[in-house]
Design goal:
This protein is mostly helical. Helices cover 63% and strands 0% of the residues. It folds into two domains: 4-71, lambda repressor-like DNA-binding domains (434 Repressor (Amino-terminal Domain), Orthogonal Bundle), CATH 1.10.260.40; 82-114, no CATH class. The longest helix has 11 residues, at 4-14.
C-alpha cells in the first residue's frame, strides 16, 4: 500500500528536487521532510504542509490529504451538514462504483442541457 511519505518522495524525485531544496521551498526542515518521506510515527504532515507540498508539486492537495487520511475542512463541513453523504459513499462502494465514475457523473450534471428542472419543459 502506498503511503503519503512514499508518494511525496515519488513526486519530489520526479521533479528532480533534493530534500533540502524542497524543504526550503515549502518552509519546513529537511530533517522533518526526510521523516515524512520515511513514514516515521508522528511525522504525518498537517493539512497546511500537505497543501504547500501539493502546490510545490503542482498537484491537487486531495491526493496527499487522502493518503494522509486527512479530511479537508470544506468536506468535513459538508459531511456534518448532510450526513447522508456517508450512506451515498457506502452504497456506491458496495455497488462497485469507482470515484472516477462519480466524478464523470458530477461533471455531466453540470451541463445545462442535462439539468432537470422540475416543472420546466
Amino acid at each position: 500500500m502506498e503511503t503519503v511519505g512514499k508518494r511525496i518522495r515519488k513526486h519530489r524525485e520526479a521533479k528532480r528536487a533534493g530534500i533540502r531544496e524542497m524543504a526550503r521551498s515549502i518552509d519546513i526542515s529537511p530533517a522533518y521532510l526526510s521523516r515524512v518521506e520515511h513514514d516515521w510515527p508522528g511525522a504525518t504532515p498537517s493539512q497546511d504542509v500537505l497543501h504547500r507540498m501539493a502546490s510545490y508539486f503542482g498537484i491537487s492537495s486531495d491526493e496527499l490529504l487522502s493518503l494522509a487520511r486527512r479530511v479537508p475542512p470544506d468536506v468535513m463541513d459538508e459531511l456534518a451538514r448532510s450526513p447522508e453523504w456517508f450512506s451515498v459513499i457506502r452504497e456506491a462502494k458496495k455497488a462497485g462504483v469507482k470515484p472516477d465514475t462519480l466524478w464523470t457523473l458530477a461533471k455531466l450534471l453540470e451541463e445545462p442541457s442535462l439539468r432537470y428542472i422540475p416543472g420546466g419543459s
